[in-house]
Amino acid sequence: MASRAQADRAGQGFKLWPGLLDRAAQEALRDAVFARAKLAPFYIPRMPKSGAPMSVRMTNFGPLGWVTDKEKGYRYEALHPETNRPWPDIPEAALALWERLSGYAAPPEACLVNLYEGSAKMGLHVDADEEAWDAPVLSISLGDTALFRIGGVLRSDPTRSVRLASGDVMMLAGDARRAFHGVDRILPGTSSLLAKGGRINLTLRRVTPPNT
Ligand code: SIN
Ligand code: MN
Description:
By secondary structure, the protein is an alpha+beta fold. It has 3 helices and 12 strands; from the N terminus they run H-E-H-E-E-E-H-E-E-E-E-E-E-E-E.
């Protein structure tokens, strides 16, 4: 079991800024995402080994992108797996949030973009494919509200449910950086930001330690 102290530290590393992005900022970021998704289309990621499709669709922005497929599993790649082209750049507004909130000296290298439609969800996992473990993960939510679940550093640790609404920004830092988390479901009709409904989540990640 993780110790009580570890659980407390994981709690401290979880930060939420509800409604940090106002409607105009949400619309601008939404438009920046869809413009880039024309160049780097959302695709269906597949689980390692089984090749089972995930229910979210994904794309990435930045020099590196998080990908997964049956053959090679979870990893970061510089090229979109279907177009074989570099990922588009990270929107300026997202970079500005990282600079303002992350407390990390180097910029993020990856912005994973998850698109949740219908019954899409994401199982409990730890973001563990980055070498820069000391860097936080910064999450920006757009569109319908998510029931986000966060626990501790062990899969068996108790979890709690947090609503992530459009414009909310959340950070996993310190021990929370290693906490299990996932998305139980999306609450349909809770935002008018996306014409077709659903949710977009952007997570900014530093992958390689700076100065290496
Ligand atoms: C993730 O853990 O990659 C996504 C979390 C979210 O969609 O809020
Ligand atoms: Mn994650």
